[in-house]
Design brief:
Layout (H helix, E strand, L loop, with lengths): L7 E5 L3 H4 L14 H13 L4 E6 L33 E4 L13 E6 L10 H7 L4 E7 L1 H14 L3 E10 L3 H13 L3 E3 L1 H4 L2
Parallel strand pairs: 1-2, 1-5, 2-4, 3-4, 5-6, 6-7
Helix pairs in contact: 4-5
């Protein structure tokens, strides 16, 4: 793979409730990608590339819990990210319209209450401010939240690469279908090793 320079790394929903067997909505095998996610985030930081880390931040009676078991309730341990995936200089943007300050932040924790990060009304302005033309996406769940992020970025006119060994799925067939649909409309697939250029 030839060298490509990226503008933003998207670390999707790598939170304790999804990543580990004790989590409220564990994705089987997800603990195996934590080291890759941490390495990708650190790599981005070392090159001055901002990391947008999407994070579920649900209320206790969130409407999403009609479809999924309760998980990532704001302020709980399960809603947090593993320490290794956090960068030193970070800021949080909540899921309400706001003026936000990202100067100096290596990592932007973007809260959401939906499987689609684009339901956070601040995301389009954030992408514009970061001049995010080329994006790298990884995290969980491949065929749900990662898919929504990657396809949303493509629809917004960005170039998007999904890191195939830094994602985990719940349904292999749906994951493969997403990869097919994604590449058919211009998305790229790569390994973490190919990102470390």
């Amino acid at each position: 793979m030839k060298t490509v320079f990226f503008d933003v790394f998207f670390d999707v929903d790598t939170q304790l409730d999804f990543l580990y067997p004790a989590g409220a909505l564990y994705v089987p095998g997800a603990e195996s990608i934590v080291a890759e996610v941490a390495a990708l985030n650190q790599y981005a930081a070392s090159r001055g590339i901002p990391v947008i880390s999407t994070m579920d931040a649900h209320s206790e009676n969130d409407p999403e819990f009609r479809d999924w078991p309760p998980h990532c309730v704001a302020g709980t341990a399960g809603q947090q990210k593993p320490a290794g995936t956090l960068l030193e200089k970070r800021t949080t943007i909540s899921n309400t319209p706001q003026d936000f300050e990202i100067r100096g932040a290596q990592q932007i924790l973007l809260e959401k209450q939906s499987v689609d990060c684009f339901t956070n009304p601040n995301l389009p302005a954030l992408l514009d401010r970061l001049e995010a033309k080329r994006c790298v996406v990884y995290g969980v769940v491949t065929e749900i939240c990662v898919k929504n992020a990657a396809m949303g970025l493509l629809r917004a006119g960005r170039q998007v690469t999904v890191v195939t060994d830094a994602v985990r799925s719940l349904d292999i067939a749906k994951c493969e279908q997403f990869f097919q649909d994604f590449t058919a409309i211009g998305g790229k697939l790569a390994t973490a090793k190919e990102m470390f250029v």
